[in-house]
Specification:
Elements (H helix, E strand, L loop, with lengths): L17 E5 L13 E5 L4 E2 L4 E3 L3 E5 L5 E9 L3 E7 L14 E5 H22 L6 H19 L3 H34 L1 E9 L10 E9 L2 E5 L12 H11 L2 E5 L2 H4 L9 H12 L3 E5 L2 E2 L7 H4 L3 H18 L6 E6 L11 H18 L4 E6 L5 H5 L1 E2 L2 E2 L7 H10 L6 E7 L14 H12 L4 E8 L21 E2 L5 H16 L4 E6 L24 H12 L3 E5 L5 E7 L1 E9 L2 E10 L3 E6 L4
Length: 606
C-alpha cells in the first residue's frame, strides 16, 4: 500500500528496471537527500550508481536481487541521522525488464523502521522481557500515524503524518533497546553471592556483620593514554591524571608506528613505559593499541620503501617486541587495526590476511595468554559503497568489515576478539561517522556478536558542540554529519554517553568500552569530544559517566542468619569483604565474582 495522495501509476511499488527515489520536506518541496548508498539484504553496503534527475530526485538501477537504501535524513524532534528504507525487509528489486517506477522515501523510511521495531518488540516479549506501556504507546502512535498517512488526501497532511510515524518509531526503538539492555544488565552482569561463616567446629556463626564493597568492575572501562606523549599540549597534566583514574579502571597504551619506530628497529619505549608503569601503579588495567595499522597516517616513510617480503619480517617484530616486553602487564592487544580501510600500501586481501596471521602468531609466541583482536572502523561498511579507502579510490572490490572477518574465519585463522569503533557526529556528510539511533547501534553490536568472539568497544567519541572549527588537527567539520535528538551540546553528549554505555554494557558479549580522548586538545580525534574542557574542568558528560559507572558497583552490608549465611546479588567484579562480630573486625576477604558463588569462611573465635 502507498499513501492515497500520491498517484499510484506514478508512485507504484518498485517493479521495473529503473527506480526513481522521491523525497519531500515538511512543506512538500521535493529534494534529494545529500547522502545515499545501497546495502544488500544482509545490510552490507555495495557499490551502486545513483544519479540525480533535476537535482531533486535520486535514480538507480534495479536488479534481480533486492537491496536496501540508506540516506541521511532529518526528522525534527529526533535528529538528523542515517536511516534505512528496506520495503519492510523485502528490499527493492527488478520485477520486469524495462520501465520506471518511483518510491516516496518519506513513506519507505517510516514503514521500514516501524516494521523493524515491531519485529524486535514482539520477539522481546516472546523472550520474556518486560516492556513498558510507554513503549507500547509509542509503537501504537507510530502505527496510527502511518495509517493516517496512507489514507490522507492532502499532500502536506500526508507528509506530516509520515514524519510523526517515523518520529514515534525512532523514539520507540531507542526505548526498546534501553529497556532490554537494562534487563540484560540485571541478568548477565550480576551474580548471586553467598558468604557462610562457621567456627572451627563447622558451627554456623549467626549475627556476624558482613560489609561488602566492590572495588572494580568485571569489564574494562578505559580511555587512551596518548597524552603521555603529548603532555605539553594539555593545560595541566597532573589534573588530567587525577581525572583519568577517578573515572576509568583501564587505559589503552598506543603504539603508533611513526612515533614508536621512527627508524627501523629503533623502538621508543620511554613514553610507553611511563604510561604502563603509571597505569599499573594506580591499579588500572591495560590494553595495547594498534600493532598493525596500514593507514597513511601510521606507516613511516622508511617502511613504505620496503618490499612486501621485507615488510612481513618487519611486521612480525613490530608485533612481537611490544607483546614480549609487556607480557606481564598487557594481556589484550589490538593486532590488526582497520583492515581494508587503512591500506596505503595497496595490499590485497590475501596480503592483509597474511600479515594478520604473522601478527597473531607473533603476539601468541610472546604471550600465549594474550587476547588478540581485529579492530574495525566504519563498522556499517559504507566505504565499500564509496569504493574508497582512507587513501582514495580503491583499485579493487573492497570487503566490508563483516565480510573481512568471515573471510578470516573461512581460512581457519583463530583470534579471540573483535573491536568496534563507534565515532559519531563529525567529519562531514558521508564521512563514515554520521549519526545513528541507539536501536540501530544496538543491532550492529548484536550483528558482530553473532560471529562468536568477544566484543570490545575500542574507540568512542561524539562532539559536545554543534559547530565547525579550526581548533583541532584531524577533523574540523561537525554540522554536516547529523545530530542526535538535538544539535550537539554538553547535555546531549552526556545523554548519548549514558545511553550508549547502558546499551553496550547490556550486551553480555561486550568485554570493554573505551572512550578515546579524555580532554579537548589540539590532537583530539573528534572535535569537542573530550569529557574535560581544554582547561581540564569536567563537562557534564564526565560526571554523568562517573555516576553511571558507580551505579554498576555493589556496596552492601548485612548480618548472617541462623545458618551463618549472608547472601546478595551484585555486579560481577572484585570485592573487598569485611567480617565483623560484636563491632570488632574479625576477617577480610578479597573476592573476584565471575559467576554465582558460595564461599565458606572458617573463623577462629578462641
Amino acid at each position: 500500500m502507498i499513501p492515497r495522495f500520491f498517484n499510484k501509476e506514478k508512485f507504484g511499488e518498485a517493479s521495473s528496471s529503473i527506480l526513481v527515489i522521491e523525497a519531500f520536506d515538511e512543506r512538500g518541496n521535493p529534494f534529494a537527500p545529500p547522502y545515499i548508498y545501497a546495502s544488500d539484504s544482509e545490510g552490507e553496503p555495495f557499490p551502486l550508481s545513483f544519479w540525480k534527475e533535476g537535482e531533486v530526485k535520486w535514480v538507480c538501477p534495479l536488479f534481480n536481487k533486492p537491496f536496501f537504501i540508506n540516506v541521511i535524513w532529518e526528522i525534527k524532534g529526533f535528529g538528523k541521522l542515517i536511516l534505512t528504507a528496506d520495503n519492510e525487509g523485502k528490499g527493492y528489486k527488478r520485477e520486469r525488464q524495462h520501465g520506471r517506477s518511483s518510491i516516496i522515501l518519506n513513506y519507505e523510511l517510516a514503514k521500514s523502521h516501524l516494521k523493524r521495531i515491531l519485529e524486535h518488540y514482539e520477539s522481546g516479549l516472546k523472550e520474556g522481557y518486560i516492556l513498558s506501556s510507554e513503549l507500547k504507546n509509542l509503537i501504537q502512535e507510530a502505527q496510527k500515524f502511518l495509517k493516517e498517512a496512507e489514507n490522507a488526501s492532502d499532500k502536506i497532511e500526508c507528509l506530516v503524518f509520515l514524519n510523526e510515524s517515523l518520529r514515534n518509531s525512532l523514539w520507540a526503538g531507542e526505548k526498546l533497546a534501553l529497556e532490554i539492555a537494562k534487563q540484560n544488565i540485571e541478568k548477565f552482569r550480576k551474580a548471586n553471592v553467598t558468604i557462610r561463616i562457621v567456627d572451627e567446629t563447622g558451627k554456623p556463626i549467626e549475627n556476624a556483620k558482613i560489609v561488602v564493597k566492590q572495588i572494580d568492575h568485571e569489564i574494562m572501562f578505559a580511555c587512551n593514554t596518548r597524552n603521555f606523549e603529548m603532555r605539553d599540549s594539555l593545560a595541566n597534566f597532573d589534573i588530567y591524571l587525577e581525572r583519568f583514574k577517578e573515572l576509568f579502571n583501564a587505559g589503552m597504551v598506543h603504539f603508533f608506528w611513526p612515533t614508536f619506530e621512527p627508524e627501523e628497529e629503533k623502538y621508543r619505549w620511554e613514553t610507553r613505559d611511563v604510561a604502563v608503569n603509571w597505569l599499573k601503579s594506580n591499579g588500572l588495567r591495560i590494553w595495547g593499541h594498534l600493532l598493525i595499522w596500514l593507514h597513511e597516517w601510521n606507516v613511516p616513510e622508511w617502511a613504505k620503501r620496503k618490499t612486501y617480503r621485507e615488510l612481513k619480517e618487519i611486521i612480525r617484530k613490530l608485533c612481537y617486541e611490544p607483546a614480549c616486553r609487556y607480557r606481564d602487564s598487557i594481556y589484550f592487544w589490538n593486532v590488526f587495526n582497520e583492515p581494508e580501510w587503512g591500506n596505503v600500501l595497496q595490499l590485497s586481501v590475501d596480503q592483509q590476511i597474511e600479515l594478520l596471521k604473522i601478527g597473531l602468531k607473533a603476539v601468541n609466541e610472546a604471550n600465549p595468554e594474550a587476547v588478540r583482536m581485529i579492530n574495525l572502523t566504519i563498522i556499517w561498511g559504507e566505504y565499500v559503497a564509496w569504493e574508497r579507502t582512507a587513501e582514495g579510490l580503491a583499485k579493487r572490490r573492497l570487503l566490508t568489515p563483516i565480510q573481512f572477518l568471515k573471510e578470516v574465519e573461512r581460512r581457519g585463522i583463530y583470534y579471540e576478539a573483535i573491536g568496534l569503533q563507534l565515532y559519531m557526529g563529525f567529519g562531514g556528510t558521508g564521512s563514515g561517522f554520521s549519526v545513528r539511533d541507539m536501536f540501530t547501534i544496538s543491532k550492529i553490536i548484536e550483528k558482530y556478536s553473532q560471529l562468536g568472539k568477544e566484543i570490545h568497544i575500542t574507540e568512542l567519541g561524539t562532539p559536545s558542540r554543534f559547530e565547525n572549527t579550526d581548533k583541532f588537527r584531524f577533523f574540523k567539520v561537525v554540522t554536516e554529519a547529523g545530530y542526535w535528538h538535538k544539535p550537539w551540546d554538553e547535555e546531549t553528549q552526556a545523554d548519548w554517553i549514558e545511553q550508549f554505555y547502558t546499551i553496550a554494557f547490556g550486551n553480555p558479549n561486550v568485554k570493554s568500552i573505551s572512550w578515546f580522548d579524555l580532554a579537548d586538545y589540539k590532537n583530539a580525534f573528534v572535535p569537542w569530544s573530550g569529557l574535560l574542557n581544554e582547561d581540564m574542568t569536567p563537562k557534564r558528560s564526565y560526571y554523568r559517566l562517573k555516576n553511571l559507572l558507580n551505579s554498576w558497583l555493589t556496596n552492601n552490608e548485612g548480618i548472617t542468619n541462623k545458618y551463618g549465611e549472608y547472601s546478595f546479588r551484585g555486579f560481577k567484579g572484585r570485592y573487598k569483604i569485611k567480617i565483623m562480630k560484636d563491632e570488632k573486625m574479625i576477617n577480610t576477604l578479597d573476592l573476584n565474582v565471575k559467576s554465582d558463588i558460595k564461599v565458606v569462611i572458617t573463623l577462629d573465635l578462641s
